[in-house]
Amino acid sequence: MNNLFCWIRARIWVGVWLGLWMGLPVPVQADQPLTLEQALALAWDDNPALEEARGRIAQARAAREEARAAFWPRLDAGLEYLRGDAPSAYLFKTIDARQLPENVDFNHPGRFENFETYLEARLNVYAGGRDRLRFSQAETRFEQARHAYQAEHNDLSAAVVDTYLALLSARDRGDIARQSVAVLEREVDLAEVRLRGGSLLRSELLSLQVRLAEARADRVRASAAFQRLQAALAILLGRDAAESFEPRDEEPDFVLPEDYSQALRRALEQRPELAMASGARELARLEERLARVEYLPRLDVQARLYHDDPDFAYNDDQLNWTLGARLSWNLFSGFATRARGAQALGQTQESRAAQRRMRQAVEFEVRRAWLDLEERSANRDLAEAALAHAEEAFAQVRVQFDGGAVEVTRYLDAELAWARARVNASAARRDHQRAQAELARAMGDWRHLSGVEAAAGPATERFDHGQDL
Predict the structure, then answer these.
(1) pLDDT tens digits, 397-410
(2) What is the DSSP string of 88-145?
(3) Of 44, 35, 242, residue with least CA distance to 158
(4) Which of 319, 346, 433, 450 is 20 to 30 Å from 172 by CA-CA measure?
(5) Rounded CA separation 436/373 (Å)
C-alpha cells in the first residue's frame, strides 16, 4: 500500500512540474549567443512600451466602433411596473390596457397598478453631418494610434540596434585590453629575467609594471561597461536587468540611399511622426466643421410597441404602437456654439504650425544623421589605416626591444600606440554602424536592416492579424 501511495505521489509531482515547465515561456539563457535579429524580435515581442502602444490602439479601435454605432437604429426592450392614484396615469394606463371601467370618477379613480412591456426603436435621420464627422474623428484617432505605435516601434528598434552595437564595441575594448594584458605580462616576465641577467634596469621593469597595471585597469573598466550595456539591452528586450547576453559579432547590412535628397524623400514619406502631425491637423479641421454643423437641426424618428395590463395577462387586443418624428433646432445656446467654433479655429492654427515644426525637425534629423554618417565613414577609414601602421611599428619595436636594441620607453610608446589604435579602429567601426542605424531611424526605415524582415514575422504577426494594425 505504501509503495502504491509513493508511486502515485511521484506521478503527481512529475505531472505538476511538467505542467509548470510547459506553461512557462522559455527564456534566453545567460551568455547565450544573441544575434541582432533575435534581439529585435525579442524587443518587439516583450517590450512594455510597445504593449502600451498596442493598448492605445485597442482603445482607439473601440472608440471608432462606438462612433460607428450612431449610424444604426437603437432598439430597447423593457418592463415597467407602476402603482399609484394619479388620475392622469390611471386614465392613460387603463385605456392602453383596454380596461377603462364604466362610470369611473376621474377625480377619484382610486389606487391602481400596471405592468407595461415595451419594445422601442429610435433612428436619427438627419443630424447635420455630426455623426459622420464624429466617426471621421474616431477613425483619424485610430490612425493616430497606429502611427504612434509605428513611431514607438521605430525608436525602440533604433535603441536596440544602438545598444547592441555599443555592447559589441565594449566587448571589443575588453578583448583588446585582455590582449594588452597578456602581451605586457609576457614582457614583464622577460624583463625580470633580463633584470637578473643585468641587461635591464630596474626602472625599466617598473615602467613595464606600471603599464601592465594601466592595461588591467582598462580591462576592468571595459568589463564594467559591458555589464552595464548588457543590463540596458536586457531592459529593452523586456527581460530582467540581471540577465546577460553574448552578442554575436556580425556586420549589420543597412540599405541606405545614395545621396541626401533620397534620404530626405524617404523620411518625408515614411516617418510616422509626420503622419501623426498630419492626423492632428485633420482632427482640428474636423473639429472646426463639427462646430459649424451645430447650427443645423436634428431629425429623429421613434417607434414604440407595448402592452399594458395590471395582471400581466396580455392579449392581442391590448397591443399598442406609436410612430413619430421629432425635429429639434437649437436657436440660441448662450454663444457656446460660437465659442466652440473659435476654439476649433485655434486648434487648426496650432496643428498647422505643429505640422510645419515636425517637418523641420525631421529634415534636421536626416541632415544631421547624413553628415554624421559621412564623418564616421571617414573616421573609420583613417582609424583602420592608423591601426595598420601601429601594428607594423609595434612588431618592429618589439623585436628590437627583445634584442635589447631599444629602450623600454620606446617599447611602451609603441605598445600604447598599438593598443589605442586597436581601440580607435574598433570604436570607429561600431560608430559607423551606429551612424547607419541612426540614419535608418531618421528615415523611419529600420526594416531595411538585412535579415530583420524574416525575424520580425512571428513577433508582429500576432498583433497584426485581424486588428487593423
Answers:
(1) 888 877 777 777 77
(2) HHHHHHHHHTT-PPTT--TTS---EEEEEEEEEEEEEEE-TTHHHHHHHHHHHHHHHH
(3) 44
(4) 450
(5) 6
373, containing H or E segment: helix 336-402
Backbone angles phi, psi at 59, to 5 degrees: -65, -45
Check whether 336 has a pLDDT greater than 80: yes
Helix (H) or strand (E) holding 253: none
Q: pLDDT (tens digit, 9 = 90+) per residue, 169-216? A: 888 888 888 887 887 787 777 777 777 777 667 777 777 788 788 888
The beta-strand segments (E) located in 286-383 are 298-309, 319-328
**240 φ/ψ sector (left φ>0, alpha ψ -120 to 50, else beta):** beta
Quote the pLDDT of residue 32. 67
The pLDDT value given to residue 362: 93
406/395 Cα distance (integer angstroms): 13
Pairing label, strands 32-34, 319-328: unpaired
Q: Cite the beta strand spans of 158-297 per DSSP E.
A: 245-247
462, pLDDT greater than 70: no
Q: What angle do CA 300, 134, 468 make, to 5 degrees?
A: 125
Q: Are 249 and 256 in contact (CB under 8 A)?
A: no
- pLDDT category of residue 381 using cuts at 50, 70 and 90: very high
Which cell numbers hold the place of 310? 395590471
| Alpha-carbon gap, residue 369 to 257, rounded angstroms | 12
Express each pLDDT in 274-308 by its tens digit.
999 999 999 999 988 988 888 889 999 999 998 98
| C-alpha torsion 215→217→218→221, nearest 10 | 170
Q: What pLDDT is recorded for position 210?
A: 82
Query: Rounded CA gap, 151 and 149, in Å?
Result: 5
Q: For residue 416, count other CB atoms closer than 10 A to its CB.
A: 16
Q: How does DSSP classify residue 71?
A: G
What residues contact 1, with CB distance under 8 A and at least 6 apart? none
Residue 240 clears pLDDT 50, i.e. is over it: yes
Residue 21 to residue 32: CA distance in whole angstroms: 20
Burial of residue 413, with CB atoms counted within 10 A of its CB: 0-12 exposed, 13-18 middle, 19 or more buried: middle
Report the predicted TM-score, pTM, of the whole model to 2 decimal places: 0.73
Q: By the 8 A CB rule, do 305 and 321 touch?
A: yes
Return d(Cα 4, Cα 434) in angstroms, integer.
64
